[in-house]
Amino acid sequence: MSANQFRDTPKSLSDPAASDALRLLLAARHIAPLSDFVQRLRTKALGKIVPEFDPWDGGIDAEVLYLLEAPGPKARDSGFVSRNNPDETAKNFFLLNKKAGIPRERTICWNAVPWYIGSGTKIRTAKPADLNNGLSHFFELLSLLPKLRAVVLVGRKAEFVVKDLECRRPDLKIFRSPHPSPMYCNRSKENPKNILNALHQVAKFLVTQPE
Question: Is the CATH number of domain 3-206 3.40.470.10?
Answer without folding.
Answer: yes
